[in-house]
C-alpha cells in the first residue's frame, strides 16, 4: 500500500507515465509550434500566367527601346562627331561624341533618386509608363536636331540636352523593369523570366546596330553624314508609342497590390518594417534614402559591384568595340559592325538558357565563374580582335559575348532580391544608377581617353580585368537567392497545387522543428537520434 502511494504522484500532474505526455510538455510543444508558425494558403501567391506574360513582354519592350537608342548611338558615334563637332580632329570628334554619350549617365542617379522612391510610393506601373514617354520623345527629338553647320554651337548643346533627358528617364527604367518582373515571377522561375528583360536589351541593340549597318552599306559615309543618321532616331517615335500602349495595359505587381489592398505601404510585409511601425513605412523619400545607405549599405555595395562587372563588359562590347575596331585598329566599318551584330545575336539566343541555369545552379556561382573567366580571358579576347582577317576577330568578339551573357542572363533576377519590397525600386535605382554612371556608361569615354593618352591598344583588356576582380569580390559576399521568396514578400508559385504542397510542407517542417527543439530541451540525449533526416525547408518544391 505504501509503495502504491509513493508511485501515484508520478501519474498525476507531474511527469508522464510510460509513453505518456504531461500537461507541461504539451504546453511546451504548443508554444514551440506557435513560435514556428507555418505558412497559410493566403500567404502564398499564385502567379497569373497571362499577367506574367504581359509583364515580361512590356518590360522587355521598354528595355528594347532603350537599347535600340544605345545601338544606334554607338554605331553612328563617328558620324555624329562629324555632324556636331566638325572643327575637331577625328580622334577628338570620337571623344566628344562619347562625352555626350557619357553625359546622359551622369544624370541617371538623379533619375533614380526621383523615379525609384516614387515607384515605391505610387506604384511600379505608373512610373514605368512615364519613363517610356520621356525616353521615346527625347530619342525622337535627336533625329530632328539641326546640325552644327546650320546653327553652330547650339547644335551640340541641343544634342546634349536630349541625351540628358534620355539619361534622366533611363534612371528609373532598368531598376523599375527588373523590380516589376521579379515581383511577378514565380520563385522557381525568376531567373528564366528575368532574363527576358535583357533579351529585350540585346534585341534592341541588334535592331539599332543592324539598321545603322544597312543604312551605311546603302547610303555610304557621305549619305549617312548628310541625312541618313537621322532615320534610326526617328524610328524611336513609333516604337515608343507601342511600348507605352503595352505598359498602360499592365496591372500593378502582386506584392505592391497586396499592400495597397491592406491599406498600408508595401513595408507591411517586411519584418523590419513591422518592427519599426507603419509610420516609417510611409516615410518621405529623404528618409528612405537615409535608410538605404545606413541599414542596407552592404546590399548597396554588392549591387554596385555586380553592376560594375556587368555594365563595363556590356558598354565596352556594345558601345565602344565598334569604334575601337574602326578608329583604332583600322578595320573595315561594315566588317566591324557585322562582327558586333553577330555577337549580339549570339547573346540574345543564349540569354534565356543562362537565366534558366541560374535557377538551377544559383546566382552566386554564375557571377563568380563569369567574373573569374573575365579576368582570365580578357587579354586573349582583345588579342584575337586585334588580329588580321575575320575569323580570329570573330572568335574574340564571341568570347566577350559569352562572358557578357553570363552577367546579362543573371542580373535581372539577382539585383532586385537584394532589397526588401517596400524600398526595392528606390534602393535598386540608386545603387544601379550610381554604379552605371561612374563605371558603366563612362567606359567608352574612359577607355578611349586612356588609349589616346597611352597609345596602348590593350587598355580595353585591362579595364575588363579590373571589372572582373570587382565582380568576383562582390559575388563572394552575395547570399544565394535562387528559388527563394523576395525579401518582404511571401512565396510565389505557378499553380494552386504547388501552393497547397508548399503549405503542407511548411506545416510538416514547423512540426518537425518544434519536435526537435522539444527533444533537445527535455531529452538532450535523444535529440540527435530522433530528429530525422534534414529537410529542404518549407520553400522547397522541386516538383
Task: Tell me about this structure.
- With 543 residues, the chain is mainly α.
- It has 26 helices and two strands.
- It has a two-stranded parallel ribbon.
- Helix 11 crosses helix 21.
- The N terminus and C terminus are likely disordered.
- Shape assignment: globular
The Rg value, from CA coordinates, equals: 28 Å
Give the terminus-to-terminus CA distance: 62 Å
Oligomer: single chain
List keywords for this structure.
disordered C terminus; 543 residues; 26 helices; two-stranded parallel sheet; mainly alpha; 76% helix; globular
Give a brief rundown of this model.
Helix content is 76%, strand content 1%.
Write the layout of secondary structure elements.
Blueprint: H1 2-7, H2 23-35, E1 45-46, H3 49-75, H4 77-84, H5 90-106, H6 108-122, H7 124-142, H8 148-151, H9 154-170, H10 173-184, H11 190-228, H12 230-234, H13 236-248, H14 254-261, H15 271-276, H16 278-281, H17 285-295, H18 297-328, H19 333-361, H20 363-386, H21 391-414, H22 424-440, H23 443-454, H24 459-476, E2 492-493, H25 496-522, H26 524-530
Parallel strand pairs: 1-2
Amino acid at each position: 500500500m505504501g509503495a502504491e502511494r509513493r508511485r501515484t504522484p508520478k501519474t498525476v500532474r507531474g511527469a508522464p507515465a510510460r509513453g505518456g505526455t504531461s500537461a507541461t510538455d504539451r504546453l511546451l510543444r504548443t508554444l514551440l509550434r506557435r513560435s514556428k508558425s507555418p505558412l497559410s494558403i493566403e500567404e502564398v501567391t499564385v502567379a497569373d500566367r497571362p499577367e506574367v506574360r504581359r509583364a515580361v513582354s512590356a518590360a522587355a519592350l521598354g528595355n528594347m527601346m532603350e537599347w535600340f537608342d544605345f545601338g544606334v548611338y554607338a554605331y553612328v558615334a563617328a558620324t555624329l562627331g562629324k555632324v556636331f563637332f566638325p572643327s575637331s580632329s577625328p580622334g577628338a570628334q570620337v571623344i566628344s561624341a562619347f562625352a555626350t554619350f557619357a553625359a546622359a549617365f551622369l544624370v541617371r542617379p538623379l533619375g533614380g533618386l526621383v523615379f525609384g522612391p516614387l515607384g515605391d510610393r505610387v506604384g511600379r506601373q505608373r512610373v514605368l509608363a512615364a519613363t517610356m514617354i520621356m525616353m521615346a520623345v527625347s530619342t525622337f527629338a535627336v533625329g530632328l536636331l539641326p546640325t552644327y553647320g546650320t546653327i553652330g554651337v547650339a547644335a551640340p548643346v541641343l544634342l546634349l540636352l536630349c541625351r540628358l533627358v534620355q539619361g534622366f528617364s533611363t534612371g528609373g527604367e532598368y531598376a523599375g523593369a527588373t523590380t516589376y518582373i521579379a515581383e511577378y515571377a514565380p520563385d522557381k522561375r525568376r531567373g528564366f523570366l528575368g532574363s527576358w528583360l535583357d533579351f529585350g536589351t540585346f534585341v534592341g541593340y541588334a535592331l539599332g546596330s543592324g539598321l545603322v549597318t544597312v543604312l551605311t552599306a546603302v547610303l555610304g559615309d557621305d549619305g549617312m553624314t548628310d541625312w541618313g543618321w537621322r532615320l534610326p532616331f526617328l524610328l524611336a517615335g513609333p516604337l515608343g508609342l507601342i511600348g507605352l500602349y503595352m505598359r498602360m495595359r499592365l496591372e500593378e505587381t502582386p506584392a505592391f497590390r497586396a499592400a495597397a489592398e491592406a491599406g498600408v505601404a508595401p513595408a507591411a510585409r517586411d519584418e523590419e518594417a513591422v518592427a519599426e511601425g507603419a509610420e516609417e513605412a510611409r516615410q518621405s523619400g529623404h528618409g528612405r534614402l537615409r535608410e538605404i545607405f545606413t541599414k542596407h549599405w552592404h546590399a548597396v555595395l554588392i549591387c554596385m559591384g555586380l553592376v560594375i562587372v556587368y555594365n563595363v563588359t556590356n558598354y565596352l562590347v556594345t558601345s565602344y568595340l565598334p569604334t575601337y575596331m574602326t578608329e583604332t585598329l583600322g578595320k573595315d566599318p561594315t566588317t566591324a559592325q557585322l562582327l558586333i551584330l553577330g555577337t549580339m545575336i549570339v547573346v540574345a539566343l543564349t540569354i534565356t538558357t543562362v537565366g534558366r541555369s541560374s535557377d538551377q545552379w544559383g546566382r552566386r556561382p554564375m557571377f563568380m565563374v563569369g567574373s573569374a573567366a573575365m579576368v582570365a580571358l580578357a587579354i586573349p579576347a582583345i588579342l584575337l580582335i586585334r588580329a588580321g582577317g575575320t575569323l580570329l576577330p570573330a572568335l574574340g568578339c564571341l568570347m566577350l559575348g559569352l562572358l557578357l551573357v553570363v552577367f546579362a542572363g543573371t542580373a535581372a533576377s539577382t539585383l532586385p532580391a537584394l532589397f526588401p519590397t517596400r524600398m526595392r525600386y528606390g534602393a535598386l535605382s540608386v545603387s544601379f544608377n550610381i554604379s552605371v554612371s561612374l563605371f558603366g556608361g563612362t567606359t567608352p569615354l574612359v577607355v578611349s581617353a586612356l588609349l589616346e593618352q597611352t597609345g596602348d591598344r590593350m587598355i580595353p583588356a585591362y579595364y575588363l580585368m579590373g571589372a572582373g576582380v570587382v565582380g568576383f569580390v562582390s559575388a563572394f559576399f552575395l547570399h544565394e537567392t535562387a528559388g527563394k521568396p523576395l525579401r518582404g514578400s511571401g512565396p510565389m508559385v505557378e499553380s494552386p497545387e504547388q501552393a497547397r504542397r508548399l503549405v503542407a510542407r511548411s506545416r510538416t517542417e514547423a512540426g518537425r522543428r518544434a519536435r526537435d527543439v522539444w527533444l533537445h530541451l527535455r531529452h538532450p540525449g535523444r535529440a540527435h537520434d530522433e530528429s530525422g533526416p534534414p529537410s529542404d525547408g518549407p520553400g522547397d518544391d522541386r516538383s
